[in-house]
Structures are given as C-alpha cells and as structure tokens.
User: Which sequence fits this backbone?
C-alpha cells in the first residue's frame, strides 16, 4: 500500500487502492457548469462518489471594492453579482441603505419595484427552464426559454436603459419614472407568456424521458436543506415553506395576494416544478400590480450625497435564487465601513455533494442545473 | 457470391469494349464505388444544411442566413474551415490509433451503402447475404468510436467511447432482430429481393402488408437505428452537456470532419435501409387508381428512393430536436428489458402470421 496523492479537497481516509476510481475535472471550461466553476469529481466508472466544487476563478473582491466607493456606486456593483436577478439585488441593497437613512419609498415607487423585481424573477426562472432543458439534452428548450426572456429584457431596457445590469433603484425610489408604455407592454407580455408557458410546460413537464431522468434524483432532505442554509426554490422543493416575501415581508408584498409553492420530495423534478409554479405566481402578482398601479411621485427625498447614520443595517430579500441579504456597517462619511452580501447561489452550491452521491454524471448535470447557480454571485 | 452481371447501360458498355470479364468487372466496381462515395459525400453538406434549418425552425429561429441564399453556402464554408485546420493529436495520445479511428468510422457506412438498391439497375453489389453484411459492417463502425475514445488520452473521450460501446452493441441486437423480421417475411436476405417483394400498391410495402406487426416493426427499427446512429435522444456517447464532446472531444480539422461526415453518411445508409426494408424501396406509392398510378410510374425509381430517404432523414432530425436525452443506464434498461423481449415476441408473432396466412 502506497499513498496516492489526491487532488486538493478530497478526504484522504476514503482511499481504497483496490478500486479503480478516477478523477475528472469538470470545468472551469465545460458546457454545463454555467460559468467558470470547477467540479472535481471522484468517479467509480460513471457513478459519482464525491464532488468538490472549486470556485473563485472570477473573484473580483466586490465587498472590498465597496469600502472605497460611495453607497450609490455600490448599487451598480450589486448588478454584477447575480446578473440574472440584478434588479432584485438592487432592491436588496437599497432596502439596507433606506434603513440607514431612515427614509421610505412612495407608493408608486414601491409598485415599480415589485413589478420590475417580479419581471426579473420570471426572466431568471425562464433561464433556469432553458438551462435545465439544455442540460438534459433538449437543446430546443434552451432556445425556448431564452426567447421569452428577451422580451422581458426589452421591457427592462426601455425602463432602465440596460438589459442585464439594470442599476435602477436608489434609496427612496428609483432613478426615474417608468414610461407610459410600461403598463401596456407588461400587460401584453403577460398575455403572451401565459400562452407560451402552456407549450413550454408540455415540452418538459410531461415528457416521459424527463420524468424518468428527474424523479427521485438528487434528493435533498428537509433537514439537509436547512442545515446547508439553502434558500429559495431549492429549500421550498424540500418541503420548507420559507419565502422572505411572506415570512418577513418587505416593500408592498404584504398587501399582495400570492402563494408560496412548496413541494415535498426534494428531488430534481420538484425543484423544476417549484420554479414553474413561481412563474405563475409572479404573473399573478404582476396582474394585481397592473390593476392597482397608482399615480404620484416615484421617489421620495433626493439627496446630493448619501450619508448613513453610524450603525449596522441588514436587509433580506427574496430573489429568484433565494435569500439575498445585505449587511452594511456605516461609521462615517459617504462610504461604507464594510458591506457583506449573503448570496443564495453560494449556500445552495454547498448542498451539491450530498445530492449527487451515487448518481451518474448525467444526473450531476441536471442536479447542478436545478440548483441554478450563477458563478459571479458565488465568487463575488 | 457477387453477381457481376447487373444490367446497366454503362456496365454493358464497359463489358463490350473490354472483353476480359475480370478486368471489366474491376473497372465496373471502381466506377460504381467512386460514384457511390461521390453521391454520399455530396449529400452530407445538404443534410447538414437541412439539419441546421430544421433545428432552427423547431427552435423559433432562422438558422444560417448570411452566406449565399438563405445560408446555403454556410456548410461549404464550414467544410473549408475544417479542411484547412491543422490536425494534431493531444499529448500522450496513441497517434496511430488516433488517426485510424475516424477512417474506420467513415469506411463502415460506405461499405453498407454498397448493398442498397437505388433503382432496378442501380446497385453496387447484389449480395445474397445483403442484410447480414450490413449488420456486420455496422458493428465494424463501432470500432472507430471505441478506438477514437481510447486513443485520445482524455477521460471524457474514454467515458464517451465506453458508453457508446455499451449502447451500440446492445442496440445492435434489436437492430438485427428487426431486420431478421423483414428477412423472415420477405423470404430473402438479398436487398434487391426484399425490394421486389414489395412491388405493387402502397399496401404491399412491409410497413403495411402485415397488419399492425409491420408498423410496430418499423417503429422498433426507428428506435434501435436512432441508437445505432448515436443521434439524440440516444446521443449519450457525445452528450455535449455531460462529456463536452464524448469520443470526439480531442479531434479537430479533417479528423473531426471525418467523424462528422460518418455521422451523416450513416444517416443516409440507415434511412436507405429503412426505405428498402419497410417503405417499398424504389417503387412508387401506387394507390390502385389507374390514372394516378400511370403518372406516378413515370417518375424514375431512384427519385422515389431519394424522396423516401429524405422523408426518413427528416423524421430522424425532428426526433433529435424534440426529445431530451435518457441516462445511460435507462437506455440499457430500455433495450434489455423492453425492446429485446418485444422484438422476440414480434418475431414469434410474425412467424405465426406467415404460417397461418402468408
């Protein structure tokens, strides 16, 4: 028996020299790791024994950068974390800043926030649908999901001036008001989306191969999901009904009528179903907002420079991926002493090893897709 | 074994000017082999263009549009790019096997294509053991993938080639059994004889001639040949999302082009086989109404044949872009626990049918 050197991260005591295990580096350049993520796989044939995720390939030190930037400049950096939920990240940061400033948001401003955030949620879940279908081998689903997402981006483009990195919300409201065409465009888009979602669901939800591939695969138990700090659809698919919008409402979510979809098996299929159900809930929220969309100012007090009262401020929001929290420590001046972000993708990725053990490489790909990780948010 | 006297104007002419039968046979064989290669290689760019367009329209996009009319020249540009690329083997690869693999892959479908009767007088070799020959040659093609994956010195390639080895060898059994069904009902393994047994109206084609059973056999052939072709949804050997490219991950330039070409020529071969065995070969779809039938008969047989082949190819392409990929163990389960028993049952039912009615 001689000692064999294992790649970094693997536990040494698991070595059994008689088996023919081998190691594969999946990524950082691999079609289905969703960016620069490297998964070191320990394989027995095609069966996965252990997975060690390595990340940090695109670490930019956003939290450190924030310390030398004004608060307003940091809002732009929050876009660059989870680029699929950029507008929701903006909101999370603004919530923390508003607590520090002690200001509120006028009603119209709140409605603009909710509507844009829900549009962003739909866009993010559509990207999930696309990547999930694509990773299962259905290239057609990949294109389907992105088609409707483009329409949302067109709306965001008109409102915020940017498709992906919106940088739109400010403490007290938003940069500017929505154009008159906003409500009609959202209305017609929702009508279109409801029609196409029927087709899209038929394409994957009832396909026998998809069901065979996803049911009972990658089970994450309720206890594990809580222990790993999972949030968002990953947590709710494991049977925990926790949604910040319901449990700790911010904005005007407490006035809106919507459900939190929960499923109880915690497998790949459930995580898919939860996200599809959330698209429908978002449509419901948007419909209510369109009906009640008020007139009035879109932004409260405007200030030349934003100086937070000394202290620490915490905000928690529910992005499409899960719990996105910002913690700001202000000491003096117009720059934060420290900003820390709690990102959902980072915590969700931690559960990967538990979920994939004993499954095949094909299942690893689909399980990873249902975690829906965005690498810039993991690396920050 | 090879019947050298296939009546054909060109063949007759060569036999006339060169009286020595051995030499005229060789010349004839060379000409026909070159012709079949030229046709097959010429079809491949059309198929690639077709696949891109079909895939694009299924996915609500336009596909290639820039080069030539509706992107028709795109494939040619791609072929040029592949041909002028430098071919190199990765470090640690077995160079000899690495370059041998694509050649083997490309040879197999060409060999199978020589058995196919395209028209009454249009067949390279009229073997009495046509079907067994095709099955044997198909098995030979797997070697190319296995060797290629092994010689690449890449873990993804190895996994891909192991997967394809398991998959193709399993599905070969179903593939052979369905062809055996056709051999049984038509009473010959010669492809020309099989075609001629389907002369008459459209209802004499083997897909319709035996009620229900023929159609089931056709569906089974379609499934097992999709697996044989390594095409989605059974493309677990390539599985881009899982294995980046499977057995051809490390190939580039001409070597990759040969694998790519082999895939499409395989498609032509398998579709031709389906046409010959189930869809009446080069016979037009006569419907029993004389005025229409005389019109249909005026169209030459090879055009009917090409039409049916392209119909089959379109079916393969639509299926490819509609389904997701099963997992490797599910694929094996499906073959050994469902398709193979069903095939044996089909064979038994077919035999019973012939014994009682036919």
Assistant:
């Amino acid at each position: 028996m001689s000692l064999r050197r294992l790649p970094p991260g693997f536990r040494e005591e698991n070595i059994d020299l008689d088996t023919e295990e081998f190691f594969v580096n999946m990524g950082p350049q691999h079609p289905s790791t969703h960016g620069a993520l490297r998964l070191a796989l320990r394989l027995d044939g095609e069966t996965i024994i252990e997975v060690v995720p390595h990340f940090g390939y695109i670490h930019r030190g956003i939290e450190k950068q924030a310390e030398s930037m004004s608060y307003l400049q940091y809002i732009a950096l929050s876009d660059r974390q989870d680029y699929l939920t950029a507008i929701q990240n903006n909101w999370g940061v603004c919530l923390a800043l508003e607590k520090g400033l002690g200001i509120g948001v006028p009603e119209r401003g709140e409605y603009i926030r909710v509507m844009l955030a829900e549009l962003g949620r739909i866009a993010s879940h559509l990207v999930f649908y696309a990547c999930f279908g694509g990773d299962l081998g259905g290239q057609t689903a990949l294109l389907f999901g992105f088609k409707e997402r483009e329409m949302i981006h067109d709306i965001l483009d008109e409102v915020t001036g940017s498709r992906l990195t919106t940088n739109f919300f400010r403490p007290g409201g938003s940069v500017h008001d929505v154009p008159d065409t906003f409500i009609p465009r959202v209305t017609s888009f929702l009508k279109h989306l409801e029609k196409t979602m029927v087709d899209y669901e038929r394409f994957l939800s009832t396909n026998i191969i998809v069901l065979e591939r996803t049911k009972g695969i990658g089970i994450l138990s309720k206890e594990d999901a809580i222990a790993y700090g999972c949030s968002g659809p990953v947590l709710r698919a494991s049977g925990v009904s926790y949604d910040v919008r319901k449990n700790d409402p911010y904005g005007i979510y407490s006035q809106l009528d919507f459900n939190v979809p929960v499923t109880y098996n915690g497998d790949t299929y459930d995580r898919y179903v939860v996200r599809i159900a959330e698209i429908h809930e978002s449509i419901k929220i948007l419909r209510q907002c369109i009906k009640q969309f008020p007139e009035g100012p879109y932004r409260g007090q405007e200030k030349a420079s934003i100086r937070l009262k000394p202290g620490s401020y915490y905000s928690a929001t529910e992005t499409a991926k899960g719990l996105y929290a910002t913690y700001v420590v202000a000491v003096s001046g117009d720059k934060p002493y420290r900003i820390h972000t709690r990102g959902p993708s980072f915590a969700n990725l931690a559960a990967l090893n538990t979920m994939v053990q004993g499954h095949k490489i094909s299942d690893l790909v689909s399980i990873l897709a249902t975690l829906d990780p965005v690498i810039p948010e993991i690396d920050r | 074994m090879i019947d050298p006297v296939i009546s054909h104007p060109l063949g007759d002419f060569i036999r006339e000017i060169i009286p020595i039968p051995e030499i005229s046979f060789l010349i004839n064989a060379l000409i026909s082999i070159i012709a079949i290669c030229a046709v097959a290689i010429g079809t491949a760019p059309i198929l690639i263009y077709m696949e891109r367009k079909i895939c694009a329209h299924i996915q609500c996009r336009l596909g290639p549009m820039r080069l030539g009319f509706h992107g028709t020249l795109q494939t040619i540009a791609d072929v040029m790019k592949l041909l002028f690329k430098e071919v190199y083997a990765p470090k640690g690869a077995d160079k000899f096997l690495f370059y041998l693999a694509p050649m083997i892959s490309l040879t197999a479908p060409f060999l199978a294509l020589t058995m196919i009767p395209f028209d009454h007088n249009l067949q390279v070799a009229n073997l009495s053991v046509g079907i067994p020959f095709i099955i044997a040659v198909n098995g030979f093609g797997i070697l190319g993938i296995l060797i290629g994956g092994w010689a690449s010195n890449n873990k993804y390639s190895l996994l891909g080639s192991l997967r394809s080895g398991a998959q193709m060898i399993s599905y070969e059994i179903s593939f052979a059994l369905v062809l055996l069904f056709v051999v049984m009902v038509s009473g010959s393994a010669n492809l020309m004889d099989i075609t001629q047994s389907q002369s008459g109206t459209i209802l004499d084609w083997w897909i319709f001639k035996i009620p229900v059973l023929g159609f089931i056999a056709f569906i089974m052939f379609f499934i097992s040949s999709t697996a044989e072709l390594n095409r989605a949804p059974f493309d677990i050997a390539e599985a881009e999302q899982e294995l980046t490219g499977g057995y051809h991950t490390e190939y580039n330039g001409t070597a990759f082009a040969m694998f790519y070409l082999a895939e499409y020529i395989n498609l032509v071969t398998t579709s031709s086989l389906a046409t010959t065995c189930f869809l009446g070969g080069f016979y037009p779809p006569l419907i029993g109404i004389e005025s229409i039938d005389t019109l249909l008969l005026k169209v030459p047989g090879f055009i009917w044949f090409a039409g049916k082949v392209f119909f089959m190819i379109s079916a393969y392409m639509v299926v490819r872009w509609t389904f997701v990929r099963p997992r490797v163990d599910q694929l094996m389960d499906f073959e050994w626990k469902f398709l193979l028993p069903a095939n044996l049952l089909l064979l038994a039912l077919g035999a019973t049918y012939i014994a009682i009615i036919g």
Chain B touches chain A through 29 residues (CB under 8 Å). Chain B has one domain: 90-356.
